[in-house]
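It is worth pausing here to work through a concrete case rather than discussing structure prediction in the abstract. The textbook approach is simple: state the sequence, then state the predicted structure, then interpret. We follow exactly that order.
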Amino acid sequence: MRTPAVLDGHTNNPSNFRALAIAGAVLVVFALAAAMAGCKSIAPDAGHEVVLVEKPMFVGHGGIDPEPVRTGRAFVAATTDGIDVNMQPVAFQQDLPDTMTADGVPVSFHAIMNIRVTDSVKLISQFGTNWYANNLDAPFMSLVRQQVRQHGMNEVAISASAIDSIDAEITKGLNAFIIAKKLPVELITLTIGRAIPPDAVKNQRIETATQEQRIQTEQQKKLAEDARSLSEQSRAKADNAYRQAMQLSPEQFIQLETVKMMERACGNGNCTFVPPGTSVMVGKH
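Step two, the predicted structure:
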């Protein structure tokens, strides 16, 4: 059989086939570059997930992808948005001013909650990115007010057992709310700090404590003076008993005590004393 010299109008030459192969490779490269130009990469950090929100430019339906991007890297369309969700426990801090106690004193608290997300896709699709502010903030503050109203100011400001009771009741209430709301989160810990009373109350407490301390000081001083008075009375009774036992008159007893005092003063030999009634004066050598 005879091989034709012409194939589709071209000479059957190997160089023509190489040119066609190169042209095809160039077209593939350009096609890949064009495809990559319409993509972007997403790489969440460890402990994070990225929820994809698809937004087609021309055809198809957008929406949230049921599978999040976990640790690693993924390429998505340029029109797709990624919402980062921290799957680790996150601390939410909140100040609670002017919370009324049972005795009508407005106090302030500082609370810390540790919350962990359990389903990132459900959280974003059903509750949005502001899920805490829109769902947990108001119920939490309401639970705090309900519990604080059951205790007096001194309890919430001083008693650790009262604060522990408030923590336990608020935790119980929040867990019930999370379950009823079907929020895909878990309450890990909740801590309510001790109450901070208003400045006027704090100043009164300081003044009261100062007065109580002053009273205690005066009481201790009086006890010391009473003890010293009793000691002096006991000593006087002992001296009088000694005088009577020695059959001395008060004047004689005074002279005897004077002699003893002079002996103690001159016991080191630096002076000389003469008993009372003599004309010689006491002096130093």
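Step three, interpretation. Residues 1-11, 30-37, 280-285 have pLDDT under 50 and may be disordered. The two ends are 160 Å apart (CA to CA).
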